[in-house]
Amino acid sequence: MLFKTMFILASVATLVNSQFDPTSVPIATREAWCGSQTSACPLLCLQIPGASGTPISNTCEAETLLYYCLCSNNVTPNATEYSQTIPYYTCTESNNQCVLKCNGDSTCQNNCRVNNPCGAQDPKRVNVTTTTTTTKSATPAATETPVNTNINGNGATGATGAAPRMALVDMSHVYGLCVLVGGFVAGFATLL
């Protein structure tokens, strides 16, 4: 009973905030949205530390667009931060309906989408890869040449495993010129 109450409260809060009328969308579309929502729930749970991809509860009612996703660690993910979820679909549909009401006024249409962005605006990066940055030496820009420091493909760096340096050359303009000249020669050969 507690889960059902939480489901209703969470879903109603989402729908009240968006002022979206589910009946403005065909039932077949709402059913597809619910399918996407229930498919997204396990993936959303995987983004939450300590949760598995098997939610405790994962429901969606197409008639009302009430949905509930409760992860294995009893946390409900914020579905508004993701696409392929009910909040995303209702937001984009609200924007589409707003655009239709603008009667071709491009400023109004732009405001419909800019003032009501859908999906994550500043998504959290859960799976972050650490990168290393290097600093350039203080040589003049005109004399700098791009170099490939790993031509042997072993990924070795440092003094003991450093690969020989080799200048990279952009050959695309050379190949393009060869194709162009070859085309002219072939064209003249067929005329003769």
UniProtKB/TrEMBL annotation:
InterPro entries: DUF7707
Domain DUF7707: 19-123
Pfam family, one: DUF7707
Signal peptide: 1-18
Name of the protein: DUF7707 domain-containing protein
The entry's keywords: Signal
Region called Disordered, residue ranges: 133-153
Organism listed in the record: Penicillium vulpinum
Top-rank taxon: Eukaryota
